[in-house]
Amino acid sequence: MICDLPYKVVNCISFNIVLYFMTNLRRTPSAFFTFMVISFITTLALSMLFRTFGAMSRTLAQALCPSAIIILALMIYTGFVIPPTEMVPWFRWINYIDPIAYAFESLMINEFYGRDFDCANFVPTGTSYGDVSGVYHTCSVVGSIPGSPVVSGTDYLKLSFKYESEHLWRYAYKDFDQ
Asked: DSSP for 65-102?
């Protein structure tokens, strides 16, 4: 693991710098370095998970089968495909042990918290109901306020995923009373 660390550092930095600026994420130093740290910690966590499967297996084929199933479950239960509020209770535990779920939550908070986003689609549309404007327009995104041309990223996170700003650095801690 220690011999592999320089490669992981260089790979994480080179890949994530391109990814961060290509996707036009929040352009502040704190948001950038938070993104880099969370990405690197997630890389290390998943590397150790797959090394565990490799150590338990005798051949590559034996290691790939459980690894593929586990990564599929981890990706589905991050909170994006199935929001935490919609998860089946008897599979919710996967989200609690999922390092990708903690990273997803932290990165969503890092990007959305405290920002306002312009609304692209309003309901009702002006053509179907005549000239409707003002407080009668509502953005079609969760967390919108009637009549407002913007959507609060904080409200979107709270209502869609139940993510709070204080969860940004709870990488090793998760509330189990949900």
From this structure: HHHHHHHHHHHHTTSSSS-GGGS-GGGHHHHHH-HHHH
| pLDDT, position 132 | 63
DSSP tag of 144: B
Same domain, 40 and 125: no
- Model confidence pLDDT, tens digit, residues 22-66: 999 999 999 999 999 999 999 999 999 999 999 999 998 899 988
pTM of the model: 0.82
Residue 150 structural domain: 113-171
Counting the structural domains of the chain, the total is: 2
E strand spans, the chain:
116-118, 122-123, 138-139, 150-152
Residue reference for tokens 């409707």: 132
Say yes or no: 11 and 81 in one domain: yes
* SS3 call for 15: helix
Helix (H, G, I), strand (E, B) or coil at 123: strand
8 Å CB contact between 48 and 38: no
Give residues with Cβ within 8 angstroms of 156, minimum separation 6: 112, 117, 141, 142, 143
pLDDT score of 36: 96
